[in-house]
Amino acid sequence: MSIDEKTAARVAKLARIKVEPEALPALAQEFTNILGFIEQLNEVDVEGVEPMTSVTPQRLKRRVDVVTDGDQPEKVLENAPDAREGFFAVPKVVE
Amino acid sequence: MSDLTKMTLAGARDALRKGETTSVELTGTFLKEIEGAGALNAFVHHTPEIAIEQAKSADERIARGDAPAMCGLPIGIKDLFCTKGVPSQAASAILNGFKPEYESTVSQNLFDVGAVMLGKLNMDEFAMGSSNETSVYGNAVNPWRRGADDTDLTPGGSSGGSASAVAADLCLAATGTDTGGSIRQPAAFTGITGIKPTYGRCSRWGTIAFASSLDQAGPMTKDVRDAAIMLEAMCSYDEKDSTSADLPVPNFEAMLTGDIKGKTIGIPKEYRMDGMPDEIEKLWADGTAMLKDSGAKIVDISLPHTQYALPAYYVIAPAEASSNLARYDGVRYGHRATLEAGEGITEMYEKTRAEGFGPEVQRRVMVGTYVLSAGFYDAYYNRARRVRALIKKDFDDVFAAGVDAILTPATPSSAFGIGEMKDADPVQMYMNDVFTVTVNLAGLPGIAVPTGLDSKGLPLALQLIGKPWEEGDLLNTAYALEQAAGFVAKPAKWW
Hints:
The complex is a heterodimer. Chain A has helices spanning 5-14, 24-38, 73-77, and strands at 83-84, 87-88. Chain A is mainly alpha-helical. Chain A has a domain at 5-42. A two-stranded antiparallel sheet of chain A has the order 1-2. In chain B, 36% of the residues lie in helices and 13% in strands. Chain B is an alpha/beta fold. At the A-B interface, helix 1 and helix 2 of A face helix 9, helix 10, helix 11, helix 12 and helix 13 of B.
């Protein structure tokens, strides 16, 4: 399958990665190559095979639904690019 | 003592316990070695203060007679592990300045048994790469060279800094992580030993995630005995990782008898690739003969879905990565792009991620986004997961038929030159993982053991693949192979 520039732009948008228009043709070509490689999977007969969810047949453990950690807002915010008054600060999102 | 840096973990442990050296002396020696090895670009964050403090307390423990497995032994930690108060950025610009407020379970386990951290090690960005060239720190360099040719070679990837540091005696051992071959391929390229345990053996908590269903940590060491010692120290059941295995961790070192009489070793015909270099072919045949001479029974086996492992991997790993890496949005940690007047939150996300992620990471995040997007999820992602189930079944079937371990080459070639793959298609670079990636998809333990040199004088390795949870048995087979191969070559120091 060939990926066109419009699809490449849509994928970049979905992934929230800014791609300049002039970079789109090369990106579309790379996607086409990688997806071409992946298409080999169509040769495999997967009739009746369940998609794998876990390599080890195990049921995920459940933990008790209680608070185990907390009360450390300073540590949580320590690495934030912008934090104010105990919150993460971001550009205005509501008009 | 002379040549402290050349010691193994086991040798240094015994020397410390006998009082022949101290952790402070050992640590100081390595710190000096690291200072002089800038050309290898293996250590990217240096932590000498932490190292000396840990060494002092290790010496006190040893003096008290409390000397657990790794007490006082200086190691390096891959930059993928979160280490409290120390930069941990997965070799990515997007985590510039990030200093975790917590310690990864694996590094904590190592510190609990007395290990000393010399610093953080170079790697491919978010562990995505096979040559360490996608690192924000610039590539690490392989201490090995092609004879008199001074071309810089790759140490492999993604755990390239770990491999380079261990091979160059900058630390006794190092942690690595392996999602598609990232411990075994660099170990093979640098003539050291690297094991990826069964999925679930090492806790993933605090290890920066790439593809969660494939990621496993493991040790990169100078020999098989060291791999056994360090693997035991790294493994544990951890409530903080829901896929962590609640199983006892055996004493792996005690299982190294070297006796493999009566074991059945499978040789998979599908690993005999078209165009495989004669040297790799010979290495594999030699390794097979060595195991046979040690008393193992050799059988030809078939793993029919092998050729579909790489394409399945390049759906599943990017899909999981696109989901895991969604967290890097410039809000909670790391890099945030500067915004122009009038730009809002969407521009912040898009610019932050474009500036913070390198080209290979961007490519994989976008491929993952595509294969998970509406209309393609079934055709790509679900199909890949079904093929993955078949790949695992291939292994289940041969183990059920009585095979104890599988012997394959570790890599399709020896180390290549930095930049030599620059103009190659990304898919060509992905071929580096052709022998290792099946093991991650099936969740099995796999180990790379150096067994020879190629005509250029570069190390080559074989891979042994074991049954789930039987790392002890696998290590013992690897130990027998190591004894038979007698690989002792070291790179000549040029750095």
